[in-house]
Amino acid sequence: xxxxSLLVKLATSANHQLLRNTRLYGNTICxxxxxxSGLQALLQYRLCSNYYxxxxxxxxxxxxxxxxxxxxxxxxxxxxxxxxxxVSAELIVAHVLGVKTLAGVVxxxxxxxxxxxxxxxxCLLRLERMPVQYIIEEWDFRDLLLEMRPPVLIPxxxxxxxxxxxxxYQVSNHLSPPEWIxxxxxxxxxxxxxxxxxxxxSQCIGIDxxxxxxxxxxxxxxxxxxxxxxxxxxxxxxxxxxxxLFHHGFxxxxxxxxxxxxxxxxxxxxxxxxxxxxxxxxxxxxxxxEIIVSxxxxxxYLLNKQGLLWLEVDSSxxxxxxxxxxxxxxxxxxYIQTYNDLFxxxxxxxxxxx
Length: 354
Hints:
By secondary structure, the chain is an alpha/beta fold. The chain is about 40% helix and about 20% strand. The chain has 14 helices and 13 strands. The strands form 4 sheets. It has a 7-stranded mixed sheet, sandwiched between helices. β1 (about 25) and β2 form a beta hairpin. The termini are far apart.
């Protein structure tokens, strides 16, 4: 496999900018791939050359039908302990064939050689523990199709539930659609774009400290024809006071902030640790509550009188959030309810002003 010196040699000889955040994972190389560099193509070429020598069953010229190429790569993934090997193989094959899933594809359909080569190159990236979402460069979130690009955080299935809970609460409590909505830490735009689609007359604003995340959010807003305002702002006590963006009240504030304890970051799987923005999108400080506390402390300056704050947090956090609010009355918040995720874990916190 790759060593760091080989990666540097490849980048230098091709006169490409070196990949950022490059580090070793076991005997393989883990990197953030940037589509503008072109180095990914070189990496794919070398990966293919080396891998084909010992695995001729997936080498160029090998004839496969849909079922056989899925089976072959699923076996390779299993051998390398890649999570969800069958699903990974099927999603990559479906993407190259131009379909969402293989449900309607005839299993014995012959895969053209050109597409077989494309599948092989993408599957080799999966062997490097690159998430499927980054490999196929898109992902469905509710009824949106979002572009995915490292290192911007990939939205989790639980977050889709959050949108449902918000809408369900609004309807069951006969609340008017929120006029102003704020998403703190918008990432690729999954939450704020979903809310914009749910409430098309609302003024929807997303903020993120990452320029890459803001660029991707804007791109996803455009591709889904949604009018969302995205700003590159780091949320803290100072920006809440200084930024004009925050000088009017919001009826709904939503956030899926960084909430992983700093000590737990190193034990994250390589799909996360090597490709996603760990320090910016996942690091919640010593107790995982650093950003959450900042949001709780400043909500009173941002939320309208009848407004709501929704948080997606670690399953150990809801009771801690509730205690924090009850022990810090000057924050002006009351804890309304905890909602469980699809795995039955306490995941979402609903709060309002006193």
